[in-house]
Amino acid sequence: MATAVARYTAAAVSDRGRKRPSNEDAYGFSIEAGVYVVCDGMGGAAAGEIASTIAVDEVLRLLAGHKTEPEVSLPDAAQNAICAANEAIYSRAQRNQRLNGMGTTLVALAAHEQQVWVLNIGDSRCYRLRQGRLEQLTRDHSLVEEQVRLGRMTAREALHSPLKNVITRALGTQSQVTPDVFEMQAEAGDLFLLCSDGLTRELSDETIEGLLNRELPLEELSARLVEEAKRAGGHDNITCLLVRAQA
Asked: Under DSSP, is residue 242 helix (H, G, I), strand (E, B) or coil?
């Protein structure tokens, strides 16, 4: 029988990698509010950094006050916060031509006791390590992933496709957007990883699983993941946010 979850702990590391001049990833979390967010911005002239920062700040700001609105469920509040973040980014870009077209991916985890909701837009991912086994919980909103799901491309072909950077859904590029939402029960000992594609483009799921199975503090595990991705090439910004469910 699974042990009940009593609390969560978290840690994160973000790095610009070895090739990019700046870091357009952003992350934030509030253990008290039960919300954890990673975003990977896109757009020239630092627009991606602006988009990802707006998204993280807006989602955390709105969900931090969720407990004062008990009539709204946490997953509904999370979706509302993501929609508000989308509107904030889109409106900012409409007002400033230099920021036109900016956007960001988003992956978020909302937790209340044992109930967990994972929300995503784009190709930033959430994984769960349970009893030593790693499982990807989100599905990428990318052109190659859609081709794989339709059977028009193999997973191996997708890894080497020149179109692998094309995402089909992003926050802030259109006036409205809908996140995918996955609901599940957490168990004590579960370890959730929220990450930008700077990690998953460099490291296989098997490598990530091996690293996460090490008995290390979350801060050190996050740093190890980032360092391994940099060692493997570090072609993009890398962000890892780890959330552990504990008895």
From this structure: strand
Lookup: tokens for 185: 């029960």
Distance CA 47, CA 162 (A): 24
**CATH value at residue 87:** 3.60.40.10
* pLDDT tens per residue across span 60-72: 999 887 765 666 7
Span 171-182, mean pLDDT? 94
101 sits in the region (left: phi over 0; alpha: psi -120 to 50; else beta) called: left
2 part of a folded domain: no
| Within-domain flag for 67 | yes
Tokens read off for 221:
């595990």
3-class secondary-structure state, position 105: strand
Please identify which residue in the block is written with the tokens 């809908």. 178
Q: Domain for residue 1, yes or no? A: no
**Number of domains the chain contains:** 1
The pLDDT tens digits for 200-245 are 999 999 999 999 999 999 999 999 999 999 999 999 999 999 999 9
* Domain encompassing residue 101: 7-17+24-246
Region of 117 please: left (phi>0), alpha (psi -120 to 50) or beta: beta
CA dihedral angle for residue 164, residue 152, residue 209, residue 5, rounded to 10 degrees: 100
Q: What is the pLDDT of residues 109-139, one digit of tens each?
A: 999 999 999 999 999 999 999 999 999 999 9
